[in-house]
Design brief:
By secondary structure, this protein is mainly alpha-helical. The chain is built from twelve helices and four strands; from the N terminus they run H-H-H-H-E-H-E-E-E-H-H-H-H-H-H-H.
Length: 291
Amino acid sequence: MYAFNVAKNMFKPSNIGTWIFFILNVSLIWLVFSGTPPDTMITIWIIWGAAVLVSLSPIGEYLLCAMAGARPIARTDMQLRIMPILDVVHERAQQKTPSLPKKINLWLIHDPAPNAFAIGRRTICVTDGIFELSDSALMGLVAHEMGHLANEHTDIQLLIGGGNIFIVGFILFLKIIAWIVAGISALVAILNRSLATGCLLGIFGALAVFAVWAWAKFCRIFLMWSMRENEFVADKYAFDIGFGDELAFVLDTTCASVPRNGLLKALYETHPNVHDRIGRLQQMGATYSRY
């Protein structure tokens, strides 16, 4: 059932950018290692598959939480405050999406800024700051994150992206190679005492470093686009299970920020403009209004 749900959600329009990200990175890996023996290529894809399996497993989910600085909520008063709200939202979500895990883990990150995000199949991480919010605001926030879990957004990004650890590691490997090339270029120039050779090799090394950086930035544009589209999908899910007004309120009062100007800045945003998100919720039928 889980594999079927992931496959079903994988081909939604909001995940097109993630697919492009995947295809571009696979193409790069194939290009770099295309001249290697078949055994090497097989080994690379085995490593990629292992990274995906670990990322999608409970172990991977635990490691991702640890990397984010999250841990189980230890304080009883915090549990008494947030767990009933989680239960209410979870019950509504299961009515809409029966395939949701029967238990959702709630982990805490020590950060005064109110925030929450989903990790893996069954974990929502929250910060210290959300405990200052009203119950209705908390419901809106949790309902949005439940939308990410219900649509397998985190799993799909890990699966199609080929395992974040593997992709990041591979890009880092290319950067190191590029820097080594630049260093060898400088050394050759010194040994040969040739200014022209040194300049040419230095330019080649610098271009290699720039090419790796530019490729990573270019691929990330598509992944960020999918992430922003999936925020709208999770917002709609929160509205569908009855928390549209609560989500609009918490977005407007807690998450509101001055829109970032400039196309390049907008391309790398992980979340859409708050006003656009509230506008879409209002178009769906949310009655929230600040004015």
